[in-house]
Design a protein that fits this description.
Layout (H helix, E strand, L loop, with lengths): L8 H9 L1 E4 L5 E4 L2 E2 L8 E4 L6 E5 L8 E6 L6 E4 L10 E6 L2 E8 L5 E2 L3 E2 L2 E9 L1
Antiparallel strand pairs: 1-4, 1-12, 2-3, 2-12, 4-5, 5-6, 6-7, 7-8, 8-9, 9-12, 10-11
Length: about 130
């Protein structure tokens, strides 16, 4: 019996990311090492695969766009970027998947850190998400 075809690094990474992720069940959000989970109550990020990789997010406190497309950053398939105009858009987001946990880390530099000209969101973020 022939061996099943081996998945490419990209296919494996797509499988790791695809799904709906949120804070329900013990997820957390850190900004510069400080818990800011309460600012993202009900946060969800849904990443879909297919010919066009799309995403939706909700309860994102204006950090992410509510919908758009995503793509891998570079050729190692350990980072991705989201389309849009919000502060997290266009940033390289590193990810680690461990069972039903997805850890996203990214940095928003100071020049892009204002939302509606008021709230500064600069910093290094870690989203510890659970599969929903």
């Amino acid at each position: 019996m022939p061996d099943p075809p081996q998945k490419t690094a990209e296919e494996t990474a797509i499988e790791a990311l695809t799904g709906t992720w949120g804070l329900t069940g013990g997820g957390t959000v850190l900004r510069d090492g400080t818990a800011v989970t309460d600012l993202y109550t009900g946060f969800e990020l849904a990443l879909k695969s297919g010919s066009s990789k799309t995403f939706t997010s909700k309860n994102n406190n204006d950090l992410f766009d509510t919908s758009g497309t995503w793509s891998f950053a570079g050729l190692n398939f350990d980072k991705f970027m989201l389309s849009g105009i919000k502060p997290a858009a266009g940033r390289e987001i590193s990810f680690t998947r461990n069972n039903d946990n997805l850890i996203l880390t990214f940095t928003i530099p100071a020049p892009n850190a204002r939302v509606n000209g008021v709230t500064a969101v600069a910093g290094s973020y870690t989203f510890n998400l659970r599969k929903l």
